[in-house]
């Protein structure tokens, strides 16, 4: 380590160039992971935060709420099945609203309406106002991001293209679905909006999109064998079944994977070229008794120190960039994510340096000493 630090200080300019490149790579990785995490959260925060273990969908719906339609009576049957601790119905639809008192020139707002049973485990904690009630079918609790659009408690939302109006009675936090704010309403109120047109319920009595289950011991095969034309999936599968979620996550993951592969290649080339430039020095050290193990540890130590410093600077730059990003930017830098990608970057740098270590072990002191630079 002493020799590694000594050389780092002696060749500051060379190592600084590598550190700058590594810092920029780390910064790009953290920025991209933060944007990816922000987009995923904005897309599925409500589904992810749901206290659910399994969801029952209509068979053939591919675990998508928008494709599934079940009768609410399934809830009572499902709650009696083995392993089921609690069951609750759920519905969803997208809509556009504006304040009932708004002028026509004011902007409309896209929302996701989620129908739930008031007081059930699906109702999120209210941070302002009150919760839903069975009798208040036109009352809603909404994501607090709608405050930025000028909405407040007691405001009435008018649905675009409909005569339905909803009254805000409470605010909740971090509830988004398909990149828009969520508006929770009693399942009966959701049904009134969703199936207002005659025949749109397809003849199903009290339709819902899915049945949400709690219970660690649930066997999906048993549930599907007892309930006709259903498909029971895990909570994670239901999140993946959201329209566009899997494709969006896959794109971000692919970009990060390519970035990490390119990073490994770039860092490997830098360390290799740097080692080649010091062939004579390593030859002299070998001639005076330095072993391959000692020289290898010196190179790896240099890379380790360089990597730690570059990653820390990259993290600091990312938090700095996050502080000046526009308010609406979907950027969430999770500490677990930062720690995870830091370890990956460190591992890539160390592994890349092993190519240089292998080159050092093959240096012949006599040939190296006789080499003309």
TrEMBL record:
This protein's record includes keyword Hydrolase: no
Classification via InterPro entries: ABC-4/HrtB_transporter (IPR051125), ABC3_permease_C (IPR003838)
UniProt keyword list: Cell membrane, Membrane, Transmembrane, Transmembrane helix, Transport
Transmembrane segments: 252-274, 294-317, 337-357
Membrane topology: Multi-pass membrane protein
Principal location class: membrane
Stretches assigned to coiled coil: none
Domain ABC3 transporter permease C-terminal: 254-365
Subcellular location as annotated: Cell membrane
Function: Part of the ABC transporter complex hrt involved in hemin import. Responsible for the translocation of the substrate across the membrane.
Subunit structure: The complex is composed of two ATP-binding proteins (HrtA), two transmembrane proteins (HrtB) and a solute-binding protein.
Family recorded in the similarity comment: Belongs to the ABC-4 integral membrane protein family. HrtB subfamily.
Protein name: Putative hemin transport system permease protein HrtB
Organism: Tumebacillus amylolyticus
């Amino acid at each position: 380590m002493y020799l590694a630090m000594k050389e780092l200080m002696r060749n500051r300019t060379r190592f600084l160039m590598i550190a700058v490149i590594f810092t920029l790579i780390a910064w790009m990785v953290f920025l991209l992971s933060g944007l990816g995490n922000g987009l995923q959260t904005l897309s599925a925060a409500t589904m992810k935060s749901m206290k659910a273990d399994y969801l029952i969908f209509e068979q053939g719906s591919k675990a998508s709420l928008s494709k599934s339609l079940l009768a609410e009576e399934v809830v009572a049957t499902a709650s009696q099945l083995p392993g089921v601790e609690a069951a609750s119905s759920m519905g969803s639809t997208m809509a556009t609203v504006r304040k009932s008192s708004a002028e026509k020139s004011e902007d409309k707002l896209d929302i996701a309406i989620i129908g739930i049973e008031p007081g059930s485990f699906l109702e999120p904690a209210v941070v302002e106002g009150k919760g839903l009630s069975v009798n208040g079918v036109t009352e809603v609790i909404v994501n607090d991001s709608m405050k930025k659009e000028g909405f407040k408690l007691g405001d009435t939302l008018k649905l675009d293209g409909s005569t339905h109006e909803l009254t805000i009675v409470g605010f909740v936090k971090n509830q988004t679905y398909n990149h828009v704010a969520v508006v929770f309403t009693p399942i009966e109120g959701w049904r009134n909006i969703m199936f207002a047109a005659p025949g749109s319920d397809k003849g199903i009595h009290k339709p819902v999109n899915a049945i949400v289950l709690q219970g660690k011991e649930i066997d999906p095969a048993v549930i599907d064998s007892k309930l006709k034309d259903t498909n029971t999936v895990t909570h994670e599968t239901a999140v993946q079944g959201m329209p566009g979620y899997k494709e969006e996550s896959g794109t971000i993951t692919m970009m990060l994977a390519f970035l990490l592969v390119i990073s490994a290649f770039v860092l490997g080339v830098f360390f290799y070229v740097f080692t080649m430039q010091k062939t004579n020095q390593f030859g002299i050290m070998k001639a005076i008794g330095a072993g391959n193990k000692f020289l290898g540890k010196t190179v790896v130590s240099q890379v380790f120190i360089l990597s730690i410093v570059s990653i820390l600077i990259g993290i600091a730059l990312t938090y700095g960039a996050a502080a000046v990003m526009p308010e609406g930017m979907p950027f969430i830098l999770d500490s677990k994510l930062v720690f995870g990608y830091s370890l990956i970057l460190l591992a890539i740098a160390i592994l890349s340096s092993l190519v240089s270590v292998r080159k050092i072990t093959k240096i012949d002191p006599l040939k190296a000493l006789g080499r003309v630079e």
